[in-house]
Amino acid sequence: MFVLVNLKTYPCDPVAVAEAVRDVNESTDARVAVAPQAAHLERVAETGAETWAQHVDPIDYGSNTGHTLAESVAEAGAVGTLINHSEQRLKLADVDGAVEAAERAGLETVVCANNPAQIGAAAALGPDAVAVEPPELIGTGTPVSQADPDIVEDAVEAAQAVDADVSVLCGAGISTGDDVVAAGDLGSEGVLLASGVAKADDPTAALEDLVAPL
Amino acid sequence: MFVLVNLKTYPCDPVAVAEAVRDVNESTDARVAVAPQAAHLERVAETGAETWAQHVDPIDYGSNTGHTLAESVAEAGAVGTLINHSEQRLKLADVDGAVEAAERAGLETVVCANNPAQIGAAAALGPDAVAVEPPELIGTGTPVSQADPDIVEDAVEAAQAVDADVSVLCGAGISTGDDVVAAGDLGSEGVLLASGVAKADDPTAALEDLVAPL
Amino acid sequence: MFVLVNLKTYPCDPVAVAEAVRDVNESTDARVAVAPQAAHLERVAETGAETWAQHVDPIDYGSNTGHTLAESVAEAGAVGTLINHSEQRLKLADVDGAVEAAERAGLETVVCANNPAQIGAAAALGPDAVAVEPPELIGTGTPVSQADPDIVEDAVEAAQAVDADVSVLCGAGISTGDDVVAAGDLGSEGVLLASGVAKADDPTAALEDLVAPL
Amino acid sequence: MFVLVNLKTYPCDPVAVAEAVRDVNESTDARVAVAPQAAHLERVAETGAETWAQHVDPIDYGSNTGHTLAESVAEAGAVGTLINHSEQRLKLADVDGAVEAAERAGLETVVCANNPAQIGAAAALGPDAVAVEPPELIGTGTPVSQADPDIVEDAVEAAQAVDADVSVLCGAGISTGDDVVAAGDLGSEGVLLASGVAKADDPTAALEDLVAPL
């Protein structure tokens, strides 16, 4: 299982969470990574944790102000990027452009979407993975694998129908190891986490609990 | 073949073009329709021409100001709508929401996209048809069927791979009957037209030329 | 006082509300107008009610699909338009462009904004009026004149400091004649209304109650 | 004069340009600063150059993915930020929110705008400075101070009329020391530069030429 911890713009210490991610990644079979803000990428990558960007723009080198260039986040140490997170929804053409930009820079790509139909659409754009996150469950603490197990299975089916090479992750409300196991049982190859780890008093312990049943 | 004339915000007489659309539709085997601005829908529909909206928003009845509600354009006489035209690009989630809104209101749907990958994505959202329009060819007078025939064939293949029930149209630069025939030979079931008819001195003659070889 | 009834995309009969607006306008000293959806402009204007658009885009005649051209809403019978309503927020440059487009088409302009600072900014763009609507009060039934009287006075002051010729309206939660009077006492020259009239069983009675104390 | 070098997403070495900025700042009376991408802020700030962000989002700590938090860019070493650059145009309400976020984080603010009317609007939002950059001149090499001197003087007048404490910068096409002097003569207290320095073979020499006549 792939466990990606999205730090959003939480008031957490990105380096401390990254160190927890690095340590837990080394001590388990799960692959654990962390996605800090762009301004924190360098110091997070320096911890040795697998580092992801939260977003890249559908642009190339050139006259773009305030944008996130895929090459720059790669150079800062990111090896992958989220695209089209529900808090950063992009135009269809720009999801396509962002996937292309990320691949050009050698970044692994996870395109987020709200439901199985959009997951199929996202898979058609050729990312490495897609992630289904029902917006109404984000931040609720109710895991998608429990609140809406059909949506995960339907997302897996929708992605497979379009491109069998695209992995499916799921997110929203995942906070325990049982949630992660349940997500895997529904066909998900990974999970997106956020507050459960980023806001934990002890991120290492929180992550260890999450991966323990794997 | 389906021939949809997009009036954009051109300074044309929408009723005069609509009458030409109606007349040519009756005199040929092609299906010819017209897409005026929202504020012109009623008077255009009253001509008896098949009338389409240029856009609907991913909304339902409620607190939305300045939006285009699918039910309202249907009530004004539209029987279908373009979605995600390259001049009105939507977020992926909103293309999905607009298709859903249009279907709820009984509107036929054509989702536009720039390239075969996006056409596959659009097809995954379940519209009646998709339309490939390379942005760089729009308004050039160079027909996509001539400038980039592969893109039309690839779009047909991409849509078919995702959903065999989704028709494929093409647009950009179509201005002669030969262009329409060429589009059909590449697997397209229709074309999007704009300035070639909307700005013609004699829209009826322009349309007759377009459908003559069909 | 100017009373503008925004029909949003409510499931109301726009013609029935327009007739109420027309009748009450004729029977009182207040100026009462109605803002239907673009697709309803023509039939609403035909009632003889003063008709406004809910939005115009910062565009001119040309290649724009799914946009609202100021000239088209004017031609359909609108004499004014809202711009930058909190449900249709525009980029700063586009508020400027929309005011310019509306003026080019002879439309009266009301630019909406959330707070006094933004009201000052809106006034600097040269509209005929600005309207302050705290987003958190919209649709609450708690009138801005009661919940936050300072915001109305501060908005009047901010607008006056920038351009003394710009009128100030207010909105959000206005539903009784007392609310309208209170708005006027705070320096507002008009009010934006929505559900209180548009969703009333008897829009004429609702409007008569609103303007009775004036 | 304040000289701010915007590195955009140019393929330049941000550290090399930052060192040039630092050195020239120390050797002249002008105040010279550099605005790299968010992912480069830390390493640029470590050079000792005055470092600015290119953009901050109108957000606070919380659930925001892929956004630029003012506190994070400040913590990475930025002391100021551009807002609403013509390549990153924001909604009016979001320009207001971004100014507020930047001030909360202790960042100096420069709000960009296209013309004098928008400059007046930007000034009403209370930033430290505004910058007028006619979009049609950006990247042309024709300095705004020569192509359109009136726009600079009108911008100064528009800003002063709204808030006399707001400084006015100008940009677009500035590439020589004479351009900088001309901008100052028109009432501008600084200039925005980009490719002229960022793409120069010798950024130090380019900057020295620019500030030599001051």
List keywords for this structure.
homotetramer, 214 residues, alpha/beta, TIM Barrel, 8-stranded parallel β-barrel, globular
Question: What topology emerges from the helices and strands here?
Answer:
The structure is a homotetramer of 214-residue chains.
Chain A (H helix, E strand, L loop, with lengths): L1 E5 L7 H14 L3 E5 L5 H5 L4 E4 L16 H6 L4 E4 L8 H13 L3 E6 L2 H8 L5 E4 L11 H4 L1 H14 L4 E5 L5 H9 L4 E4 L1 H4 L4 H9 L3
Parallel strand pairs in A: 1-2, 1-8, 2-3, 3-4, 4-5, 5-6, 6-7, 7-8
Helix pairs in contact in A: 1-10, 5-7
Report what the structure shows:
The structure is a homotetramer of 214-residue chains. Chain A is α/β, with parallel strands linked by helices and 214 residues long. In chain A, 40% of the residues lie in helices and 17% in strands. Chain A has a single domain (2-211), classed as Aldolase class I (TIM Barrel, Alpha-Beta Barrel), CATH 3.20.20. Chain A is built from ten helices and eight strands. Chain A has an eight-stranded parallel barrel with strand order 1-2-3-4-5-6-7-8, surrounded by five helices. The longest helix of chain A has 14 residues, at 14-27. At the A-D interface, α2 and α3 of A face α2 and α3 of D. Chains A, B, C, D: This is Triosephosphate isomerase. Chains A, B, C, D: One of its GO terms (cellular component) is cytoplasm. Chains A, B, C, D: It comes from Natronorubrum aibiense. Chains A, B, C, D: GO terms for molecular function: triose-phosphate isomerase activity.
